[in-house]
Every structure is written in C-alpha cells, then in structure tokens.
Amino acid sequence: MAQAGLHALSGVAVGKVVSRREWFFLGLILGTVFPDLDNYVVAAATIAKLDTHGLHRTFTHSLFTILAVMVIFFLISRMLQQPRWANLGLGLGAGIGMHIALDLLIWFNSVELLWPLGGWVNLWEDIQPPAWFATLLQPLELLFLALYFGWLGKTARNYGTNLDFLGTLRVWTILMVVFLLVFTPLAFIMGQRFLIIFGVVYLISITAAVVITVRMRQTVEAWPPEQSVQPATLAK
Ligand SMILES: [Zn+2]
Fold first, then answer.
1. CA–centroid distance, residue 35 to ligand 1 (Å)
2. 212 alpha carbon to ligand 1 midpoint, in Å?
3. Which in 31, 33, 54, 224 has the greatest CB count within 10 A?
4. 39 and 140 fall within a common domain
5. Enclosing domain of residue 185
6. Pair (184, 147) in one structural domain
C-alpha cells in the first residue's frame, strides 16, 4: 500500500515549505480554485446572449496569469513591507499551476496555456471520453467540495482553530452531499437543461469554497504539522 506513505511524504514536503512561509499554503489552496472562477464570465455572457467561445480555460488558465499574479502580489508585499503577501502570490501561482496540470490530465479538454498568445494544449486530442464520464464529472465537483470541506472541519477540530465556524461549515458540507446525491441522477436524466441548474449551484459552491477558505485561513495555515507559528492557539 503506497498511498499512506505517499500522503505522509507529500505532507512532510509541503509542511517544510509552508512552515517558513506565512500565507503560502493559503494561496496554494485558493490558487487551485481560482482558475475556474472564469465560469462567472461564461455565465454572464450566456445570460447576455453573447458568444462564450474562448472564455473558459483561457485567461485564468495561462502561464502568463501565473506570472502576473506573482508579480502583482510581490509588488503589494513590497508596498506594504509584508513578506506574507509575496508568499500568498507564490502560493497562488503554484495553485494555479496545479489546477492547470490537473485540467490537462483529467478533463479531456484543451487549455489555452499561453493566453493571449494562443498555445492551446490538449493531451487527449485523439481520445473521446465516453459521454457518461463527461456527464459524471459535473456532479463529482460537489463530491470533491464535500471532501474538501470535510477535511477543513477535521483539521479545524484537530488544531482547535476556527471552532466558531464549524457549525456553518457542517451545513455547507451536508449541502454538498445532498446536491451530489440529487444531481448525479439528474445529470443523466435531464440532459442540457441540467447544465443551467447545475451551473448556478456550481458557481455558488466554488464561491463558498473561496470564502470559507479565507474565513478558515487559520486552519489552513495550521495544517502543515511542522508549522512553527500557530497564531490562534499561541495567542490565547
Ligand atoms: Zn479549470
């Protein structure tokens, strides 16, 4: 069984980096969610009956975006004289990079890696995934959000952080599970109309993931076991 060891090793590896860099891991988590916020632009264009072509997996999924984010946060950190903003930018950049890599590996779709210069990449050019798989990937978003919220709750209880928020987090976790159970059959029964209902719930859910991550940053930052500074627990 390699998984447990692998998880332990990756935890140690991330922990070593994060323990010295305040807000890096927070940025990394936010960065993995950020690129798909471009779905807001797609939704707005759809409502306005505009062309949605080239709006998804383009301007938020580009290597230049990673660079721009890191430069902007570096400048903010210099202006404020607070290194943690640069750490946040580095984390965001790493997270966006991880998101792009995962999109390329599992979504069977292309990503405009060098937007605005083009550079569409599709690792699955000649492979058409079965329709049921593409359909299933949509409700699965909710499963992974539920798992992420579950992890946040468990970590918060372990470290005694953000305990005041655990009730709200539990509601969101249960909501994700309920939506997963309702939407999985609906995705297969409803066809195209499903996408409208799912789109609304999806946008609300990923926005909640961003807000909850920022709200529970104390927990996110406490996660790496070697973390030397734990603001909440030490301050009390
Ligand atoms: Zn994406």
1. 5
2. 20
3. 31
4. no
5. 130-231
6. yes
pLDDT in tens, 38-84: 999 999 998 899 998 888 899 999 999 999 999 999 999 999 999 99
The token pair at 141 is 């978003």
Q: What is the pLDDT of residue 20?
A: 63
Mean pLDDT, rounded, for 180-192: 89
3 Cβ contact partners less than 8 Å away, ≥ 6 residues apart: none
Q: Exposed/middle/buried for 89, CB within 10 Å: 0-12, 13-18, 19+?
A: buried
Number of domains into which the chain is organized:
2
Both 39 and 135 in one domain: the answer is no
Q: Separation of 53 CA from ligand 1 center, angstroms?
A: 15
**Are 40 and 120 found together in one domain?**
yes
Do 39 and 87 fall into the same domain? yes
Q: Name the band, by pLDDT with cuts 50, 70 and 90, for residue 15.
A: low
Backbone angles phi, psi at 112, to 5 degrees: -90, 85
Q: What's the gap in Å between 103 CA and the centre of ligand 1?
A: 5
Q: Ligand 1 centroid vs 27 CA: distance in angstroms?
A: 17
14 or 100, which is more confident? 100
CA of residue 47 to ligand 1 center, whole Å? 21
Q: Are residues 145 and 124 in the same domain?
A: no
Same domain, 190 and 159: yes
- Please give the distance, rounded to the nearest whole angstrom, from the Cα atom of residue 101 to the centre of ligand 1: 9
How far is the centre of ligand 1, averaged over its atoms, from the C-alpha of 84 (Å)? 26
